[in-house]
Amino acid sequence: MIFDASATDGRTVRVEVRGGAGRYTLRLDGRPLQVSVGEAGQGLKSLLIGAQSHELGVEREGELYRVSFPGASVVIALAEAVRGSAPLAPREQGPARLLAPMPGRIVRVLHAPGADVVAGQGLVVIEAMKMENELRAPRGGRLTQLLVREGQAVEAGALLAVVG
What we know:
Layout: E1 2-7, E2 12-20, E3 23-28, E4 31-41, E5 44-49, E6 52-61, E7 64-69, E8 72-80, E9 96-99, E10 104-109, E11 116-117, E12 122-128, E13 131-136, E14 141-146, E15 153-154, E16 159-163
Antiparallel strand pairs: 1-2, 1-8, 2-3, 3-4, 4-5, 5-6, 6-7, 7-8, 9-16, 10-12, 10-15, 11-14, 12-13, 14-16
């Protein structure tokens, strides 16, 4: 199966999965990885990637997945890729989606739809747990969609903007 995985930081990665029974070959943007997956108890997964072992939690939140690592977590949206399509070059092809990394409130919108932005340029500022975080363009291009307004509350994983 082939998926496009969009993370909370706006990055989108093409993921191809082959195998089964806990042993998989993944291709991340064309880069192969050998992965073994097992249960680690209490909702945790044990991953062996090459010679490195990792434990992580995976929780489904509606159509999104929260993947928790020690000290961090990321919300991921998966979309089945069109079969036969060319591999996705990182941050170069197709629209890049900016997702909310946590629940919060939009305090500032820094650009209007149609604005040309460069990679890393601030798009919106979100306040969460009394801290403001500037969310930046995942790549350069035109801000084709801005789906939030100042003062709006958003959930983790909410689509905030699209850069095409």
